[in-house]
Amino acid sequence: HMAGGLAHEINNPLAIIQGRANELMRLAAGDEPLAVRVRAACENIIQTSDRAVKILRGLRGFGREASKDPMEFASIYEITEQCVELQQARFVTRNIEVRLTLEPDIPLLLCRETQIGQILTNVLNNAFDAIVQSDSVERWVSVTAERAEDNVRVDIVDSGPGIEDHFKVHLMEPFFTTKEFGLGMGVGLSLSRAIAQDHGGTLALCKDTEHTCFRLVLPINSRAADQKVGHQVGVAHQPQ
Ligand code: ADP
After folding, report:
1. CA-proximal residue: ligand 1, atom 19 (nearest)
2. pTM score > 0.70 for this model?
């Protein structure tokens, strides 16, 4: 609710900034050096605010109650890329590399796209917190999507310190959190797992992996399997 409210509040001033930048662009017609510089600055303002608008759109989607959305065909490429895009700046600021590897030719999924995005965002948030709070020397998160028979498998692995064994059984319980007061409510994973199950899939912590790995598995509907979408392999997002 807060994410949706914030997105709305920020959207209005952003629209004014964009409007004024467009106006300045028109005023700075001509080819005198000053006009050229003003136009370049305006273009930069418009591009930057366009990016902010895109992020806000994602934030609005994330904050929205989506459990009643209809099931629709959606691309796992778009869902993962949008989630990473939404978080990219935060990861870069804390010097965390996001490695995104998407196998080509994964069919569209029949799903509630916003909800699948909410799962990935939750798990990415936890990976971010794990790395930042432990001040890990190694700082990366990898997101890999691939087809595994009749499923899509998305693994989110992080270089954080891992999870103590006695906590592992409680992770998916509602209101279980090890985070400081105000940082976590302990509902992210339980909600995410419920969404995955609602889609006929699973969300679980992988066993015996070197690094913390959460695996989201979603079934590919047989109708969806005919609707392939092409995609580049191995897109990597590096901190600048
Ligand atoms: P919250 O993030 O609000 O605490 P979650 O349900 O998302 O709630 O997560 C529950 C708990 O699981 C976290 O408090 C944390 O102890 C643990 N956890 C989840 N993901 C990770 C991770 N990647 N690394 C370490 N611990 C994790």
Report:
1. 126
2. yes
